[in-house]
Amino acid sequence: NTATTKEHREKEYVGFATLPNQVHRKSVKKGFDFTLMVAGESGLGKSTLVNSLFLTDLHKDRKLLNAEERISQTVEITKHTVDIEEKGVKLKLTIVDTPGFGDAVNNTECWRPITDYIDQQFEQYFRDESGLNRKNIQDNRVHCCLYFIPPFGHGLRPVDIEFMKALQDKVNVVPLISKADCLMPSEIKKLKERLREEIDKYGIKIYQFPDCDSDEDEEFKQQDRELKESTPFAVIGSNTVVEARGQRVRGRLYPWGIVEVENQSHCDFVKLRTMLIRTHMHDLKDITCDCHYENYRAQCIQTMTSKMNADKRVESPIPILPLSTPDVETEKLIKMKDEELRRMQQMLQKMQQQMHEQDL
Amino acid sequence: MEDREEKERGVMAEQRGEEGESEATKENSTKGKEENGVDMKAEEEEEKQQKQQEEEDEEERGMSKQVEVTMEVSERVPGLTAGVIRGADLFGYVGIEAVLDQMRRKTMKAGFEFNIMVVGQSGLGKSTLVNTLFKSKVSRKSCTPNYEEKISKTVKLQSVSHVIEEKGVKMKLTVIDTPGFGDQINNENCWEPIVKYVNEQYEKYLKEELHVNRKRRIPDTRVHCCIYFLPATGHWLRPIDIEFMKRLGKIVSIVPVIAKADTLTIEERLEFKQRIRQDLAANGIRVYPQKEYDEDAEDRIVNDRIRESIPFAVVGTDKEHQVNGNKVLGRKTKWGIIEVENAAHCEFANLRDLLIRSHLQDLKDVTHNIHYETYRVRRLNESNMNFSELELSIRNSIEFLRKTL
Question: ipTM of the predicted structure?
Fold first, then answer.
């Protein structure tokens, strides 16, 4: 009996429920890639945070410039790529850094090199996508931009507002409160509220966490809610490991205490890492592909076509070739043939009728 | 120059008395504010002892300097015999030292003036630090009813004055705030309003000094000290810091501090300070205490120690917490309490001692004797040139007339 029911079940079972597993296996083989941009003034702990997030040490041989070199510094774009593997899953991580941003006395349009870079990556992808050989397209598009807001201020500064507005339609902007260890819990709360208010007020479109499905369990929903309510995340990073409470943890040692980077009551680092890597990495990539890139592509095509139209209007209009009119002889022949056809159709109809009557 | 030097090295007590008179004023509209009595007793004892020690030192120094001066005078002016009689040789008690008492009483009655300017980006804790330094609500933030924490579009200087009193000594403290400095996207020339203000105060004093009927005590609104707030980035000085300090270091005494330093560990702090000092030296920026104005070896030793630890890394707060049964000023976080007055935590106490307890008078002296004099010489030279041009033209016209006549 069991054999027959099993057979029966197997007959009804199609088997495409295994698709997610197949996708999973293929992805693991192929590996993932993720491009993360960090932006903000010097000294806000960007490099330290990236090292803490991915447990790497990307900036070992960083040279600090002297005073003269710094005065004439412009905004650069630097890229570091690192391959990380965990439990057989490979991640090709690219960090795009923006040294010099906001450091000069006159920072007018200091975000221009950054927006240009993002556009360049879109343009390259657009060209590759429209090309003939699409097998090995490299996706260098920026999937997420972490923007570091200094903890010293009382809210958004003019440069913060301008930067985020310039980038909101090109990349997923995730604002962070940096160096949060110089703020007391009450100050963090106040600053977060203030920032959320101002982001609303100025209509800045930052990355929004997608709402979780209604069929998720309560615990997941609770987690999701907490995540959303604690944005912008107040983060602390560290390159050093210290001894705290009997364990070795990433942290910062002060005379008055030890700050643990991964302690949720100290800062939102864990929340950021969870969001960025563990839960929303794919969503960030999706939105980059489906939203920002598509916007760019549509805009690009529009500008191209409007350019073409504009060019057309400049030149003389394409002359409409006149259809060749048939000569009189052929027209007569056509008429005669038409008439013959009509006569034959009529005869056929009559014959059909006669046959029909005969049948009856 | 020599005369001035002699004066300075001369009987210091006397000179101090003069200074006190010229700088203290009786203003009509002073808001009398009492000091907060926070841990006053301990401080009182300390200060008493310090003052006593200082007095004794001064006396000794005064005496020995007296000897030097008289020797020099007798050398230069032939025919003038000057002798020196030391205190131990006197037959009895003359009472010369009582002049110190008289001086102290006069200055206590007259009071002191101190004008301090705070410069730095919005949110670096300038108002909180000033309040913590003087243990009372003296900043613009605490005094203006409509204070808003908005970023202003231009740099507008605003000053707030209070009279603080401690043990019978009155001080008129003026805090000059510079909201809007360094907050915009384009901060070019944001230091100009500040340079203008400082020079205006020198101009005011100069005009008063040149008056035929001048006031006994010229009101002193000159900026005695400018605290410049550096954000605790941990890396280096930013271009705006260098530009500002280059320009203002020439006309006012700058005391740079690392603001909100509770985000730097001790090693990071030391590295940061070293880099800042390198940057300052590389750009020829002189901050207080300037090496050139050290008066003698003793000063140099004290000031060298200070110069090795500037800029001070400070943390400010007006909140108190309980630590080990004591009430301390501090910031409470989830990982500990940062005690503002604990030397192991931050250097607030060093800054306070420098500004108030040991070098307050020196700051005023440097402003009056050096910065102000530099300004005065420059201005008088400018007007002298005009005057000499006038003289020349008059002479020319006289020559011409003589020829024609």
Answer: 0.73
